[in-house]
What does this fold into?
Amino acid sequence: MRPDITVIGKALSGGVYPVSAILADAELLGLFTSGEHGSTFGGNPLAAAIARAAIKVLTDEKLSERAAEMGEYFVERLTEIPSRHVKEVRGRGLLIGVELKKESGGARRFCEALQGKGILAKETREHVIRFAPPLVIDKKTIDWALPRIRAVLNIK
It folds into this structure.
């Protein structure tokens, strides 16, 4: 299944300025001609320049490929952590979820314990610890985090 239109935003400007956009095939986008469609903030030249610069960084620094590589490394290392609480580790790129067994209680207590060790994570759907590190994370930083994560995943 492939959508006709995809709306993107949030990190499109690298967090510098509010920017959103739509992605679609030229055939569909060609239905709009100049002046037929507008929005309150559409056509902002500063936003467009910032988004172009952010996209250039993403492509020049190959951050998508880096996310895939570092995400695979992170998921592999998380999978190696023995813990009675973990049901499954999964991820795509650097969006990683550690699903906890229901009997372990909610993920919030684990996220709060991680925060106490200097790691920010978000509880998602009550039983999932979500890791979403920056695209520029390196193995050294992941390796720094792993013993702290291991300690938290082995709390009672």
Remarks:
- Residues 63-153 form a domain with the Aspartate Aminotransferase, domain 1 fold (CATH 3.90.1150.10).
